[in-house]
Structure of Ribonucleoside-diphosphate reductase subunit beta:
Amino acid sequence: MSAQPASRLLDPGFDLTLRPMRYPQFYEMYRDAIRNTWTVEEVDFSLDVNDLKHKLGPAERHLIERLVAFFATGDSIVANNLVLNLYQHINAPEARMYLSRQLYEEALHVQFYLTLLDTYLPDPVARAKAFDAVENIPSIRAKAEFCFKWIDSIQDLSRIETTQQRRRFLLNLICFACCIEGLFFFAAFAYVYYLRSRGLLHGLASGTNWVFRDESCHMAFAFEVIRTARSEEPGLFDDELAREVVQMLEEAVECEMQFAQDVLSGGVAGLSPKDMRQYLQYCADQRLAQLGMPKHFGATNPFAFMDLQDVQEVTNFFERRVSAYQVGVQGEVAFDAAF
């Protein structure tokens, strides 16, 4: 009697067997994530309140209000896609362990942004408007609609059996790794670190350091899932899918540029829509490289403050609190690196 062929990562089913472990790399990612535990209560916003009252001009305040409005719903959208679409189709218990941890981290980010909004927007009317940004702020609604398009693209798939269905699943995962976490959030991080480079909003930047590391690990997991699926089924990633990925990233850049035009509409010294477009194209090229694809835009990083942002601060916060991250940062941490 011939042995049954080993199931593949995207084969339908609900494998429960951890031994023998088929994908130890996902289990190690889960263990690393557990070691990288932090809490919102560790973020000190006391200096930020003073900055908001006394150090920010109208243009910077508009930037911050738009930014926190996007944060208010961004991670909830990612968490919904994780639960509704990703968990049921990645068929490896060790990968689902990581996804369970990622869901916790997305909830932690939502809590961080909730606390951020409650601190930054004491006026109940302004706060309610920020939480309803996907309905009343066009530039944020456009980003949400881009996300929902890709959530809905596989919402009706209870099983991914055909090659075309698996490609639809990969496009969903690629969108959330490359465009949502790898582009929309990286643009948001750039605004935060720009303000940090001017000595402003240290609490926001400190919390963002931790969110940044979480998001980088989420991207690394997604890219590993994609790499594994491609190695098991090489025909999935064909020229047509590659063209769709480039088109998706072009659309994401334009979508994020609507937000950039809004955020920077007051004229923020040191930031321009032109530079933001270049940075977004640079990030998009980094994501294509992570997929093993040639760069499309050929853009360089225009933001010197993103080359290496406060390495000593990142290193020290690992050591100064028992409940902070337990894994030290080794070497240099480049905030635009391809994780």
